[in-house]
Amino acid sequence: MAQNGTTENGVADGIPALPFPQPVKVQEVRHTKIFIGNEWHTSSRGRTFPTFNPATCVKICDVEEADKEDVDKAVEAAKAAGQRGSLWRRMDASSRGRLLHTLADLMERDRLLLAVGSLPTLETLDTGKPFLQAFFIDLEGSIKTLRYYAGWADKIHGKSLPVDESFVCLTKHEPIGVCGAIIPWNFPLLMFMWKIAPALSCGNTVVIKPAEQTPLTALHVGSLINEGITSLGIPHTNMSGLPSQAGFPPGVVNIVPGFGLTAGAAIASHMDINKVAFTGSTEVGQLIKEAAAKSNLKRVTLELGGKNPCIVFADCDLQLAVEETQKGAFYNQGQCCTAASRVFVEKSIYEEFVRRSIENAKRIVTGDPLDPQTSHGPQIDRKQFDKIMDLIESGKKEGARLEYGGAAVGEKSLFIEPTIFSEVKDHMRIAKEEIFGPVQCIFSFESQQEVIERANSSKYGLVSAVFTTSMDRAMSVSAALETGTVWINCYNALHAQTPFGGYKMSGNGRELGKYALAEYSEVKAVTIKLSKTL
Ligand code: NAP
Ligand code: MG
What we know:
This protein has helices at residues 68-82, 87-90, 93-112, 119-127, 131-152, 188-201, 216-230, 260-268, 282-294, 318-330, 347-361, 382-397, 429-432, 448-456, 471-480, 515-519; strands spanning 34-36, 39-41, 48-53, 58-64, 160-161, 167-175, 178-182, 205-209, 236-237, 243-244, 253-255, 275-279, 299-303, 309-312, 342-346, 401-404, 419-422, 439-445, 460-461, 463-467, 485-488, 503-504, 507-508, 521-529. By secondary structure, the protein is an alpha/beta fold.
């Protein structure tokens, strides 16, 4: 998903005009180990796993594989870093914010300058996402998220409460402790920041597992966390004489690259992890919740799948609706929980909408993700590629009309053509299952009541969109839609300030915005009985 408050593709959509920034040649990936206590570790079981460039299917490097023992070590480091009396706990809250800003500064630097550590290039190599999208959207969103929560660090506080005057009641917002995070491969860096930034802002410590397909940018951030201590640290004392640390103390952030069934499961069931935040499939989300329930009842937030409806009314700005819904369907090769996967178009404009959507798709440039002109890259891996091709076949067999694309690009690559189906019916697999690929499904509808019922008839409830020039209609339809976000006349318009999360099986809890702070804090009520009242 994008997170820059603008749209994603092309010059007019938030990617500035020429000259484009250029990717750098990555000679060598420097950071491939497990990051615990601000040090690099090899795998306890002596194992590594490869990570591949999906554009070429060539191995980039091997990464040390964390398993249960490594997660245990990471949790121990995180627990020690966050215990009462530790530097992290004693640190002035504004210094915590300053650290998050320092990390954002280092990311800005590596976004623009450093050859070996260029974050957008690494992200493009590891995920296959087009370079300019990584540069302008993933990096921009990651940095903005860090800065947003940096600002909150010294503004998180409790209240004093009006009770019987012989008591003083107040609340304190305290850290939860060690927070686990398990993230997916579609937005590796952005999801990393969505998890660590609010957790650290609230004073917690973190153990985070990147997806097995995309560990590299997370590990690069580990090196920045270390660097924040050594090169940018300006130690000074605050008014109480305590050190106001300018670097992240060891153990505050720990990164455990590895597999879901081992490292991920160890996080979900760990007795010393008090909260776990997960983004990924609904099936694994259910496993995480079960593991949390069976271990220590740790708190769980889940950001899961979506089968997101867009409703296009006849009174809309048609070209805007065509462009936004298609961008929503194909952005990041369709590998978005927010993908615009069900586009309902009012019957009177349906044929014109389909015609313009096909014309619009012809402008997409498929190719080398490192080429700044490219807007469409490969899928992440063979498993996802096969799943998408199977769903495309099912769409053809079940009678949807293939209007555009529908085939793999090249012989053995992971590229799939942007694909448009029209005449999609609600019972078809492509109408019900999360495709997670570049497949736009267009349906027609006749009445507002009908389309609301159809839009809501999904087990998911993540996002939706409404295209109309009537604000009255936009407000009444948005009130009826069962989704955590409703976009009106736009798509994928995410901001660090705005909460994000799903209804129904799209998840529990909210990320981003002030809402996420509650997910990362314990509230303590302190009640004082006065010996006498005046
Ligand atoms: P996934 O299995 O849900 O992976 C997400 C994360 O969970 C990864 O870090 C994964 O580790 C980890 N994980 C897997 N099994 C686990 C377990 N038993 N306990 C703890 N952690 C576990 O997703 P996927 O297999 O990559 O993709 C499958 C489908 O999920 C996609 O087709 C798409 O529909 C959906 N998906 C949704 C999102 C989203 O943004 N909501 C993102 C990715 C995928 P590994 O690295 O070992 O996989
Ligand atoms: Mg990779």
